Fold this protein.
Amino acid sequence: MIRKNDHESTLRAEIGERLAEFRQHLGLSQKELAASIGVVWRSYQNYELGIREASAQTMANLANVHTLNCDWLVSGRGHMLYSPPEETARQSLALLIDQIDETGVDVPRNKIPDLLALIMASAFKQDQMTKENVLELLKLVEVNDAK
């Protein structure tokens, strides 16, 4: 049976490892990152070592100042950096446009609203934008050239 303290210690260690990975991704020292979020360097060092747990305010500062995705920090799921919904949508649409261009299919102007509505309804993510998915979308909006 895993004791509560063992589980908490393991979780703090995992969060500490992800904090170190995040800091290295930013190219900052522990002192620089600590100063940027308003905590004492020793406290931040203890977060990375898994000795102390970061407060909710510290995590909020990491998210606000450096766009850290707190879900990734705590669970390891998702992407390290948080993208605001409008930025994610912009990136996804840019990727889709590039992939439509790669298919060589000419999308008639009157089909663009249907295509955008379908994309929004499907909530496609960047990692799902394969050539096959793009061609399926084009077929769904009845673009005749879709192969």
